[in-house]
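Catalogue entry: protein

Sequence with per-residue C-alpha cells
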Amino acid sequence: MAMARDGEAALGARPGFRRGVLLCAGLLACAAVMAGTAPAPATASSKAAASSRDPARDVDTFIGTQGEGNTFPGASAPFGLVQVSPITDHYAGYRYDDPKIRGFGHSFVSGAGCWAQGGQVAVLPVTGSIGPGGDFDTADPKAASFDYRKYATPYTHAGEAGEAGYYRVHLLDARDRDGGRGIDVEATALTRAAAERYTFAPGTTTGHVLVNVGQANEKHEVVGSVVEVVGDRVVQGKLVTNSFCGGAQYTTWFRIEFDRPFKAFGTWDKDGGVPGSRRSVGVQWDVANGAWLDFDLDGARSVTATSAISHVDADGARRNLDADGRRDGKLLSFDAMRAQAQDAWRRELASIRVEGAGDADRAVFYTALYHALLQPMTGSDADGRYRGYDDLVHRADGWTYYEYFSLWDTYRSQNQLLAMLRPQRARDIARSMLAIHAQMGWLPRWGYANFETNVMTGDPVTPWLVDLWRFGALQGREREAWDALWQNANGRPPAMSRAQGRAGNDTYLADGFVPYGRAYPSKGMDADQHHGGSATLEYALADCALSQMAAGLGETSAAAALRGRAGNWRRVWDAGVRDPSLDFQGFPRPRIEDGSFFVPTHGAYSPRSDQGFHEGTAWQYQWLVQDDVPGLVVAMGGLDAARARLDAFFAYDALAADPQGRCTGQLGGRAVQ
C-alpha cells in the first residue's frame, strides 16, 4: 500500500522529541531563507565540528515507530536484502508502545501502510524449561506454549538503542529461574547477511533459541514452512507467505549458523514438540512450526547467530551467508560485522553533510536520509541469481538486481535523490525495472518481492522511469524503456496478466478522464476507477513526463499527443465547486461513467471529501498539476488567490504566530498535526 502518512508517527517517534521542530524544520528553513532571516554562515570551527560528527550515530531508527509510521528500528545495510528487527503485535513488525517482543524477524519493509509485511523467521532467545510440563510444554498436543503470542517476552526501553546498522534491547525474561535478569539482544546487518548476539544474565546455566518459521509479523500469513536442524550449529529451511494487501505467494529460504554448538535441540508443530527431531513441516492455518536449540552457558554467556535469506533457493541463502557473514572460512564476529555495517552507513550518509544544525534537527535529517537509503532492496544473491516476475531464476551478471518498488510513494522525490547521490546504483535500479517488464510483459506499480501487488493507483512508473532517464540512468537502454512506457501509456494489460497497468485507460484515452466508481473489478486491492479523480490527475502528470522523453528521443508525434493529454487535469476541474468555510472556489472533482461530475448521495459535493481521491481529498490533490502551474494558478483565480489558498492549506498564519509550535495543515478540512 502507500508508505504511511501519519506525520507525527513518521517524524516524532519517542517522548522527548520536539515534534514541532521535527515536522516543521524543512518549511521553517525555507521560510527563513525567503524572509532573509536564514542563520549566519557557519564558522570554520562549526564546520570542523560538523565534519567530525558520526552520521551513523545521528540516525535514530525509532523515528517512525509510533502510531502508523511503520518503520522498523532494527538493523539493515543500505538497500539490504536482509534485515533483523523486533516483532511485537503490530502488523508492520514493531510499535514503540507495544509491551512484548515475540521474536526478531529477518525481512522488513520500511514505512509501508499495508498490512502483512515481513518478519519471517522469528528468532527469540529464552530461558526456562523445554519438555513435558515445562515452560514450553512438548507434551501439549496443541503446542500452545510454542505460539509466539504466548511466549512473547517483556522488554525495557532503558538502554534500547537504534543506530544505522545496529540495534540493542534488553529482554525481561521472566522464565529465568537463575536470577530473572533477562537477556541482552543485539543485531547488525550487511547487505546479504546479518548477525544477532544474545547475552544471557550471569548465573544462567542454559539458554534456548527458538526459531519460529510458522509465524511472521501480525497479519502476515505463513502458508507453509519447513525447518531443518543440520549438525550442531545450523538451522535452515524455507517458508511461503501470502502477503502485502492480498498479494501473491512468494518463498523465502533461510540459513542460520551459530558460533558455538548447541547441546540439544528439537522441533515443534501443531501436534506438539519432539526433542531430538531435526525436521518439521508447517501447513496453512497451523501457526505452530519451528525448532529450539539449547546452549550450555557455563563457558560463555553470549551466543551469536549469523543469518541469511534468499528468494532463489537454499543454496542462495548459504552463499549469501558465506559471502557477507564469513571471512577466511570463519564466521565474522558480531563486533566485526557491526563495524563493517556502520562503516557502510557512514559512507552512504556522508553523501550529504549538514552544518549548523542542533542534535534534534540532525537526528531528523540523517534518519530521513537513512530511511531513503533502505529501499529498493537488493534482490540478487551473492552469485547474481534472482527470482524474476516470471517465477524463473535469472542472473544479474556484473550488476545488482533490486526489488520492492513502492513507486507511487517514491516517484516524486526519493527516486531523484538516489539518482543524484548514487548514479551507478540508480542505473542498476532502472535496469531492474526493465528486467521486470521483460519477465512480466508490463511495468509494475508496486512490486513486492517477485510479484506485482497492483496496490495504489495512477501511473507512477512513468515519471519514475522518465526521471531516471533524465539523470542518465537509462543510457544505452533508452529505446527499451521508451517501448515499455509507450505500451503502458496507451494500452491495458490483458485479463490474464498479473499486471493491471492503467486500468482506466479505455475511458481516459477516449474521453480524457478516469471514471469514478467502486464497482470496477481489480487485480489486487485497488483499481484506478476506485479513485477516478486522483487517477486522472496522475495519468495527466505521467503523460507530461513521458512527452519530454518522447521529444528527447525524436518521437515528435508521440510527444505532441502526450502534451495534449497532459492537459486532461482540466477535465476533472470544476470551477463551480466552493469551500464555504474558507471561501475558495474551483477544485478537482471526479467524473462518473457518463461524463457528468460525481454527485454524492447525501448533500452537495465537498472538496474536503475523499470520494474519488486515493488517500486524500480534492484539497490535497489540487496541487498535483506540477506540469502546468501557470494554468493551475489561473484556474484558482490568479496569483494572489493561489497564494492565499496555499497559505490556508498550510495554516501559515498559525505557523508564523508560533514558529516552534506544531505544524498544522488544511488537508480536506482536517488539521494534520
Observations:
- The longest strand covers residues 153-163.
- Residues 532-552 form the longest helix (21 residues).
